[in-house]
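Troubleshooting: if your tokenizer reports a length mismatch, compare your output against this known-good record of 129 residues.
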Amino acid sequence: MKKVAFICVHNSCRSQVAEALGKHFASDVFESYSAGTETKPQINQDAVRIMKEMYGIDMEKEQYSKLISDIPEPDIAISMGCNVGCPFIGRTFDDNWGLDDPTGKSDEDFIKVINQIELKIKNMIDRMK
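Known-good structure output:
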């Protein structure tokens, strides 16, 4: 089974959401991981709260902020969005999803980004089946 890595700088919000939704929707199609070039002490608490509300997923149960060196070598590497400067991960990205970072913004902004990630995950499932 292919390993998909969702990468952003701090591995605290968008990439964590992508890992959670990948595990939720695509665990029979690919393995999902998230990582960054830096870490944060905890996952973004707004993302944690909204993911619980929308999907019943507790991201803090099995996920934590981790470095690229902490995950298996991915078959597919996806950047969450380079508006904050793409991290270098030792290889080129297979895709850049170009998502805005909702950190510090409204719940509506978080929901918009989460919905975009869900759609992109479902599109990946369709392409990989």
